[in-house]
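Deviations from the work plan: none for this task. Representative record:
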Amino acid sequence: MEHTSEVLHHEGHGHHDATEGKKEVWRITLYLTILTLVELAIGYYMYKAGLENGFFKNMLKGLIVALMMWKAFYIVGYFMHLKHELRNFALTVVVPLFLFIWFIIAFLADGNSYNHLRNTYDKNHQERASLKMEKKEVEHGHGKEHHTGEGHTGEELK
Amino acid sequence: MATTATTKTKWWAGGRSPFNVEYGKVMMWYFLMSDAFTFGAFLIAYGTTRFATNGWPDPNQVFNSFPGLGSGFPLLFVSLMTFILIVSSVTMVLAVKAGQEMKKNEVVKYLIWTIIGGICFLSCQAWEWAHLHHEGAWWGSNPFPNHDGTLSSTNFTNFFFTITGFHGFHVLSGVVINIVMLIMTLNDTFEKRGHYLMIEKAGLYWHFVDLVWVFVFTCFYLI
């Protein structure tokens, strides 16, 4: 327990930087709000414009992911205070996370390749992709259409 | 105190935490790192499945209802949920800051706001789940067709309910932890201890829950 209180004193949060710290919190809150609004605007645009799957749509999705990472940086760096911790400590948390670079690339590429192989060699898989599904009208009054949910859920093609 | 601040500190000479962080806080960070891998694995499994599938339902067609307004409002409800969680994260930061300044009343005030935010978020999620369930969506049942009207698979709902459910469970435990913190603060536990480091650890957990939502929100509702 002695260690605990000693560390606390070293961190030394004097009263002069208390108001400054509060200002920083509101600044980061503003940034997070703006970034979220931009993300939503892009998402809404993708919906309204009815974009086809392709390069442009993928680019917008990539942009959303970049904004997501930016938000994550603000939350971890400022709200969770990691930016103000000792660099050595921050590195012990951040460096293992670089595993995600491999993790994401390898698995998404694998999924993509699997889909490509199945589309090429598995006729059943391709046919399934062109089957139309009975479009259910989504109404606000729920309950009455409850049973339609089980009709065309893809069970018969499993 | 002054000497450590001005002279060159030998962090690794022993007798102190070389990271200048209290033990429990270090462990909280490492727990959160491992939790990040758990959520990462879930989200990457979702991504891999999506890449291995030809079509996928459009989130804007699935999540377009707002309580009391009916359907036709894509992104609106989830924006509200996101905003609630961000605001509760802000009040948590303010609680942590108040704790560092040993202001008990402020800690209590901001903790209560954070708990309210968490409960609001959970209520929103409960409403959304109930609404989707009424539309016929659940684990193993997907009433929503793909973007282009083709037959979809149950992977969509399975991943949605599993991952948002796992996140919702984190929010729930975060709310419980914050309630425990509130009770301890009211009982003067931290005043007697001389510091509010426990609030900082609970704060880290709460921010992490917000952080995960940033990812879940993007992966399920936006792209």
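Confidence is low (pLDDT under 50) at residues 1-15, 139-158 of chain A.
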